[in-house]
Structure to design on (435 residues):
């Protein structure tokens, strides 16, 4: 198969080796060791730029592309996002600290999360974080109290659950009424919260936020959410006489993991959402708000691959063939968690046809430690390099230390040159906090 169908940054060179950003993946595996995350910087920058260009075209009066950094959080990512004039969404002090360490301006951060503690809020106020996306009433009161204590005036968006069921995996749906996130629209909780936010001291209510889920291919739920949210803003104006200026529509755009995935070009999602917003704004005589989007996966997923070395191929006649690799659920828990699909390829035999059907197994002491089941692969043996494609999102950021495995390094490719952007952990690193 042509790896380009999964990502433009991939290719096959004349010796049959898989390339990323023009670099030989087999050489990268030798040089940096395996498991190894490799990311192509041009793909990341192009994705950020194409969202910005599209937003500029649809919302000339104001917009922001806010990278959902939970998809991939390390210092170099925040540097790139900042250079591309985007803002960033952070959901923890860990992400926030990493961003600030990279020189990311605090005022360009949106602080998310459904259980921000008093310590989180105090620390964020100390840093001068730009926007707080408040999830619930306890947080609203807590934030007002802490902001008053620090004599700070903080900008707030309220996270609304718009009651929209996006067609995606149950674990990554967030917009439907049965959700732990946000103020519920249907019950009247959301409208009441707006009234309270407007009356509380030290808060400036700028707007509302929603995020309906992740890995969504259908553009209609996005447009539906945009319509519902703008109507809600008009209802706020009619109830409280306040015209809120910011509408954050979250992320969730689907990407291609395998040939079976057919994501729309992002421009088409953006065009439909923009048409809907412009029509609804006109109908309601509402000034077009400043629109924020929060893409995560669609910025980084196809920029990344993971390289492993195959340690053993176990044939069980009449049952299946396991290909055991030197990583697994500790560096990529997505199959174990969501039965997520991936395209896999033998990096040193990328020009060969995939003739085998195999299961890729990790090295953790756990039968469920699988990367993919019943997937087609080139014939392979011990010592071959296996590449799992489109692992740039929610892999490094979801890695664990299960079985006390150190996290692999991350290498970034720019102009055909590789550089280390996150060192691999050492065994000493693993023990650094043990007493
Ligand atoms: N904004 C908010 C408020 C979010 O909760 C998320 C993702 C995003 C934006 C970015 O969504 P994206 O564009 O990346 O779809 N671990 C799961 C995905 C969880 C998504 C959580 N929230 C996975 O590996 O598929």
């Amino acid at each position: 198969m042509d790896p380009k169908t999964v990502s433009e940054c991939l290719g096959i060179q004349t010796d049959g080796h898989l390339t990323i950003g023009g670099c030989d993946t087999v050489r990268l595996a030798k040089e940096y060791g395996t498991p190894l995350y490799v990311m192509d910087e041009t793909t990341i920058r192009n994705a950020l730029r194409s969202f910005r260009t599209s937003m500029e075209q649809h919302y000339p009066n104001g917009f922001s592309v806010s990278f959902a950094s939970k998809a991939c959080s390390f210092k170099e990512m925040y540097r790139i996002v900042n250079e591309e004039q985007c803002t960033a969404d952070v959901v923890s002090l860990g992400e926030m600290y990493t961003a600030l360490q990279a020189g990311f301006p605090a005022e360009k951060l949106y602080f998310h999360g459904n259980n921000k503690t008093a310590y989180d809020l105090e620390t964020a106020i100390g840093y001068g974080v730009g926007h707080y996306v408040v999830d619930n009433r306890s947080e609203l009161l807590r934030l007002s109290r802490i902001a008053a204590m620090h004599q700070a005036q903080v900008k707030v968006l309220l996270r609304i659950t718009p009651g929209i069921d996006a067609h995606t995996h149950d674990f990554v749906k967030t917009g439907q009424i049965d959700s732990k996130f946000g103020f519920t629209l249907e019950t009247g909780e959301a409208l009441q919260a707006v009234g309270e936010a407007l009356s509380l001291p030290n808060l400036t209510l700028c707007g509302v936020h929603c995020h309906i889920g992740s890995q969504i291919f259908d553009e209609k739920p996005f447009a539906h959410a945009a319509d519902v949210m703008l109507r809600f803003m008009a209802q706020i104006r009619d109830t409280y006489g306040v015209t809120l200026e910011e509408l954050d529509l979250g992320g969730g755009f689907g990407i291609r993991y395998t040939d079976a995935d057919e994501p729309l070009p992002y421009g088409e999602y953006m065009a439909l959402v923009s048409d809907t917003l412009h029509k609804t704004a006109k109908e309601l005589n509402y000034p077009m708000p400043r629109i924020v989007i929060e893409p995560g996966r669609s910025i980084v997923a196809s920029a990344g691959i993971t390289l492993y070395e195959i340690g053993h191929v176990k044939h069980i006649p009449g049952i299946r063939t396991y290909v055991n690799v030197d990583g697994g659920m500790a560096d990529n828990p997505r199959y174990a968690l969501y039965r997520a699909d991936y395209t896999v390829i033998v990096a040193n035999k990328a020009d060969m046809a995939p003739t085998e059907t195999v299961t890729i197994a990790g090295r953790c002491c756990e039968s469920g430690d699988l990367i993919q089941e019943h997937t087609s692969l080139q014939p392979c043996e011990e010592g071959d390099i296996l590449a799992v494609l489109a692992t740039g999102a929610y892999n490094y950021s979801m890695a664990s230390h299960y079985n006390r495995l150190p996290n692999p390094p991350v290498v970034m490719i720019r102009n055909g040159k590789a550089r280390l952007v996150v060192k691999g952990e050492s065994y000493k690193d693993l023990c650094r906090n043990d007493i």
Summary: The chain has a mean pLDDT of 96.
